[in-house]
Amino acid sequence: MSESYTPTPADKFTFGLWTVGNIGRDPFGEPVRAALSPVQIVHLLAEVGAWGVNFHDNDLVPIDATPAERDRIVRDFKAALAETGLVVPMATTNLFTDPAFKDGAFTSNDPRVRAYALQKTMRAIDLGVELGASTYVFWGGREGTETDATKNPVDSVKRFREAINFLTEYVRDQGYNLRFALEPKPNEPRGDIYFATVGAMLGFIATLDHPEMVGVNPEMAHEQMAGLNFVHAVAQAWEAGKLFHIDLNDQVYSRYDQDLRFGSHNIKTAFFLVKLLEDVGYDGSRHFDAHAYRTEDVEGVKDFARGCMRTYLILKEKAQRFNADAEIQGLLAEAQAGGEEVAAYQGAYTAERAAALKAATFDRAALGRKGYAYERLDQLTMELLLGVR
Fold first, then answer.
1. What are the residues whose beta carbons fall under 8 Å from the beta carbon of 292, sequence distance 6 or more?
2. Is there a contact between 9 and 286 (Cβ–Cβ < 8 Å)?
3. Which of 10, 229, 358, 389 has the most CB atoms at less than 10 Å from its CB?
4. Where are the domains of the chain?
């Protein structure tokens, strides 16, 4: 492998305990790999060159662990982090696996479940902060319905808002340096999940008591499950100042949540995503929320993790070449040319500018005849990606 595609800490590549630790179980088959302990996973990630490791509370500490067991597990995990140099940039809460959450957590109809979900999350936040996390992700995998006969969606929005407001106040009261990132998904495991898209989450965040503390964690597969353009969603989050974290993987459109190796299917989408992140100067974690194929053993899992990072770095180099390609940049400049004569009309509204624009004359027919050379531009992009340019 080329040394230029070897990850370094500066790349901020991270994986979750649940990703490389996935044992290959699916709805139709039993596990194919032995479970790895959190300590083993930390050493595996260090071996492949990752920068950090993220976790749900119960990825690390089983839900039924005693206080003594919890302390031992955390102590061993901290020792592994110290030995390898890996960091914990993000943590989250598992509010979807245990049967208690079968009707949701923060939006459950049962007020006792909602209270338990808050308790569990506060304790998980404490654990995340103890291990160094500065971002806390909320994925509402069970926050939804199979039939709308069961819940009033307006009440559910209010319940979710109440929970996030409560938890932001908790973080402020504890003096934690922690930001929240909300992760949308349209469906699975629920038939329909509330706040299905990045846009829906951005709208919700504006209604919170402390919106400055809350951003989004877009996941590539989640937007693509619904046939949406992930690059556009990430761009909207970035432009709003709300891209607090990101989950990278791959996904066949309109399928179940596949969590494929990054760049393994939609290579052009992956390219433009990497280009966007690098062009705007995104400085957060590049988190791979993906899983190795069920066919793989532990060595295959390492190949999977290396592949996610290597593909990102290859596409980063391709993006640099795209930005430096004279013909590509010339076509982009030509497509945006011709604005000198309308420069006086552009910018913020003034009554004078509006009046002048209303009085201006445009050659509509000439505008319609203009070709933008987008076919050529896209072909050059493909040739760059295919390695012949």
1. 20, 22, 24, 261, 300, 301, 303, 304, 305
2. no
3. 389
4. 3-324, 326-385
Q: How many residues does the chain have?
A: 389
Query: What is the DSSP secondary structure assignment for residue 1, as one 8-state letter?
Result: -
Please give the mean pLDDT across all residues of the chain.
Answer: 97
Q: Is 59 a catalytic residue?
A: yes
Fold that domain 3-324 belongs to in CATH: TIM Barrel (3.20.20)
For residue 4, the model assigns a pLDDT of 82
H-state helical runs in the chain: 17-20, 38-48, 57-60, 67-84, 111-130, 153-174, 198-205, 220-225, 230-239, 267-280, 298-324, 326-335, 351-359, 364-369, 374-385
| Alpha helix stretches (DSSP H) within 10-146 | 17-20, 38-48, 57-60, 67-84, 111-130
Q: What DSSP character marks residue 188?
A: S
With a CB cutoff of 8 Å and minimum separation 6, the contacts of 39 are 76, 77, 79, 80
Is 303 considered catalytic here?
no
pTM here is 0.97
Q: Could you give the 3-state DSSP secondary structure of residue 93?
A: coil
132: left (phi over 0), alpha (psi -120 to 50) or beta: left
Digit-coded pLDDT (tens) for 161-215: 999 999 999 999 999 999 999 999 999 999 999 999 999 999 999 999 999 999 9
Structure tokens at 309: 């990072």
Point out the catalytic residue in the list 26, 43, 56, 173.
56
* Single-letter amino acid code for the residue at 164: I
Q: Which of 57, 59, 247, 259 is catalytic?
A: 59
Supply the pLDDT for residue 231.
Answer: 98
Provide the residue type at 129 as one letter.
V
Under DSSP, is residue 278 helix (H, G, I), strand (E, B) or coil? helix
Residues lower than pLDDT 50 in the chain: 1
State how far the Cα of 58 lies from the Cα of 18, in Å rounded to an integer: 10
User: pLDDT value at position 2?
Assistant: 52
